[in-house]
Amino acid sequence: MTTSDLTSATIASLPLPSSVTEPRTPEPDGNARRKFRTIWISDVHLGTKGCNADLLIDFLDTTDSETMYLVGDIIDGWRLKKKFYWPAAHNDIVWRLLKRAKRGTRIVYIPGNHDEMFRQFTGLNFGGIEIRRAAFHDTADGRRLMVLHGDEFDAVMLSHRWLAFLGDWAYVSVMKLNHLVNSVRKAMGKPYWSLSKAAKHKVKNAVEFISKYEEIVARAAGERGVDGVVCGHIHTAEFRAFEHQGRQVEYWNDGDWVEGCNALVEYEDGRMEILNWPEEMKQREDAEASRVLAEKGDDRAQEAA
Ligand SMILES: [Mn+2]
User: Is 147 in contact with 110 (CB distance < 8 Å)?
Assistant: First the structure.
C-alpha cells in the first residue's frame, strides 16, 4: 500500500480506541446545569484511591461557570511516582475539564505541592487551561481576592507543625500508657479508665493548627492589600472574616475531594458560598423523590375522579 492509498475513507475506518475521544461515562447535555459566575475546586488528588472521582464527575456534569479555578493538588504526582494508579474515572475528569475549557469556560490552573511538576509551565496554556502560580480574582461586587494553593505558608507553619506532631506523640504515648494502666486495673478488678481526655488533647491541637493557618494566610492577604484570599491545601473548607489594620479580610478555603467534597462558588451578584457536594446531591435526590411522589398522587387523584 502506497501513501496515496491512504484516502480519508481509509483513515476514517482505522480502529481508534474510543477512550481517546470520548469518556467512559458520557457527559450529559448541558442545559440543566446550575450556572455560577465562578467555581473554585482544589485537592482532588487524581491518581490516588482517596479521590472521590464519581462525586466530582457529578459536580462537573451539573454545574457550569464563566471562570473556574483549579486551586492545586488536582493530580497527585507524589503518589503517582510511587505507584501508578489511574482509573477510567480519573481520565473522565481530565476529559471534562478540557471539554469545559473548549466550551468557553476560562480555566485557571494553579498547581499545588502535590502537582508542583506543572509549576514549571507557569504562564503557558494547555488546551485552553492557563497555568498560573497565583491569581487575582475580581468578584462581581468589586472585591479583589488573591487565589493560591496555600503550601506557600508551610514554612511559616513549621513551628506549629511541631506542635501538632507533639500532640500526636503525646497521644500515642498516652494510648500506650492507657493500655498498660488498664491491664493493671483489670488485674486488680477495677473498671476501665476513660481515654477521652487524651483524645480531646489531640483534637484541640489539630483545631489550633488549622485556626493558626487560616490566620496566617489571611494576614498575608491583608498585607497584599486585597479584600480576601481563596486557598486549599489543608483539606478544610471554611469561611472566616479577619480584621487587618481596620479592614476586613476574607479567608475562603474551597476544601477538597478526598474527605469533604466541597466546592466554592460565586453567584452573579458576587455572593460566595461553600457547597458540600454530598449534601447537594442528597437535596437533589430528595427533591426528585418528592416530585415523583407528587406525580403518583396526581395519578391516583385522577383515577379516583
Ligand atoms: Mn497541598
Answer: yes
* Distance between Cα 231 and ligand 1 center (Å): 10
For every one of its 305 residues, what pLDDT tens digit does the chain have, with 9 covering 90 and above?
444 444 455 445 545 444 456 788 888 876 689 999 999 999 999 999 999 999 999 999 999 999 999 999 999 998 898 889 999 999 999 999 999 999 999 999 999 999 999 999 999 999 899 999 999 999 999 999 999 999 999 877 765 555 455 555 555 565 667 677 777 878 888 776 655 555 666 677 778 888 999 999 999 999 999 999 999 999 999 999 999 999 999 999 999 999 899 999 999 999 999 999 999 999 999 999 999 999 888 877 777 76
| Distance of CA 111 from the midpoint of ligand 1 (Å) | 9
Backbone angles phi, psi at 294, to 5 degrees: -65, -40
Distance 151 CA to ligand 1 centre (A): 6
Residue 214 and residue 196: Cα distance in Å, rounded? 27
Q: Domain-by-domain residue ranges, the chain?
A: 32-152+226-297
Distance 206 CA to ligand 1 centre (A): 17
CB atoms within 10 A of CB 103: 10
Pick the CATH number of 32-152+226-297 from 2.60.120.200, 3.40.1160.10, 3.60.21.50, 3.40.50.300: 3.60.21.50
> Are the CB atoms for 252 and 228 separated by under 8 Å?
yes
Tell how far the Cα of 51 is from the centroid of ligand 1, in angstroms.
14
276 CA distance to ligand 1 middle (Å): 19
pTM: 0.79
- In the chain, the DSSP E strands lie at 34-41, 63-70, 106-109, 125-126, 129-131, 135-138, 144-147, 228-231, 238-244, 247-253, 262-266, 272-276
The rounded distance, in Å, linking the Cα atoms of 217 and 219 is 5
Calculate how far, in angstroms, residue 72's C-alpha sits from the geometric centre of ligand 1. Answer: 7
